[in-house]
Input
Amino acid sequence: MGVRIKPKRSETSSSTPGTSDIEVGEIAVNITDQKIFIRKSDDNIIELANASGIGDVVDDTSPQLGGNLDLNGNDIVSTSNADIDIIPNGTGDINLGADTVQVGDNNANATITTQGTGDLILNTNNGTNSGVISILDGANGNITITPNGSGNVVLDGLSFPNSDGSAGQFLKTDGSAALAFADVSGSFTKMDAITTDGSTAYTLNVSSSAFTSATTNGTIVSVNGVTQAPVDAYAISGSTITFTEALSSSDTIDYIIAMETTAIGTPGDGTVTAAKLDTGLKSFTEDTFTGDGSDTTFTLSVAPPSDTSILVSVSGVIQPAGNYSLSSTTLTFSTAPPNDAAIRVLHLGFTASVSSISDGSVTSAKLATALKTFTEDTFTGDGSDTTFTLSVAPPSDTSILVFLDGVSQPAGNYSVSSTTLTFSTAPPDSVAIRVLHLGFTGSSAAITDGGVTINKFASEVFKRRAWEEKDGNFTAVAGGAYLIDVSSAALTATLPASPSLGDEVRFLDATGSAGTNNITVGRNSQKINGNAADLTVSTNSAAFSLVYYNATYGWRYTEV
Output
């Protein structure tokens, strides 16, 4: 007869034996739950078997895997078009440990979207940005980025327009990261289409004729939608463009545009201001010498373009052009200036040279002849005639210098109407009348060599050299020239405050009355000729200039 083993048992559902129910190694059975338990030596009660099992996975409301799930070539599918949700707990992530992740089925378009209103973000290496995100397509297909509705494509902060522009337009930024299509300003020429063939050199044509006016830095070249860098990516010589790397037959030259050098336009009348002039056109060079009674030749610091583009004075008296001649930098007097005579040569600018129109860049080559070879008219007085006809019409009374026997006349002694010069009093018989036009009379439509005329200059440019008449106390300004009337009373001319090196002021006793009514030059806290005292002028018809040097010497005489 066999041995019959009857383990301890229970028919109470969900009942689990305790240490008081079974001994170590003893087995207990829950008949209702169909479970077998055993007590271990550490007093833990473990479940050895579950005879009931699970009839369907759906019966387990909280299933857990004890190991990896091997699909064994099968798929995870849903029924009734239901979604398959993979939802990690809390902040957990879903990791797809594969080199390639495929979406979509049966060649249908696939959509990757967010669940809700959040953004879709692609990054590398868990957001450390240490990798590269590449968007590739097969079979030479395009990659299309289409925002919804009126949205724009924003790449690296730059917002691109959401509609195409007109033919020939280009993308232009507004300085705030917004791009828009705009017309190309200025004059340009677009080359004929070029078919690439694997070579580096191609011929530039316009209307099937060779185009030779393009330059490397004066062109815009686009290949495969990418603008190429001049010099680095290509160079142009004559009608040939040569790329640094050969272009294959699959490459496309989108366009080649040659910019014209005349696209700067024509300045409007009155728009060329002092700021646009080169220093040589507004800070006039001055040479000074002292006569010795024998020397007739003197060497200038720069070569003037003509005899009439300098003002020459000897002991304060302006000399007519017939008293001297020029050859390069050599000034030759017809008669040697007297011993100790102060010789002053003022260059009327127009000696510098620059290449582009920017502040300080309008040079001699850009000026009309009338702006650097000044017109001179000469007449002889007869004691009765007050009107004389000039060869050109000056723009104002102060844009000419008028001399009677070498003595400069104040603007109040004459007037100008078109080409008619009218004196308030007829010049005496046999008096030499000299009229020097300070330029600004020509006319030109574009900035080419010799093409900048008076109408292109703002008034501040030429008023710099105009003489002003003064008959009462006043404060002089740097660059000022003053015809002083002290026929009725003395006056004080105060020098400019805070002068700079090279500032110059000129004075002339126009009425020849300083001996009776003195002219006082107020030093305005600066020294005059090294002395901390005002200057008193008591010589009739005195004419002199003061140039500021430094705090030690102050204002220095340049001519007396």
Remarks:
- The mean pLDDT is 81.
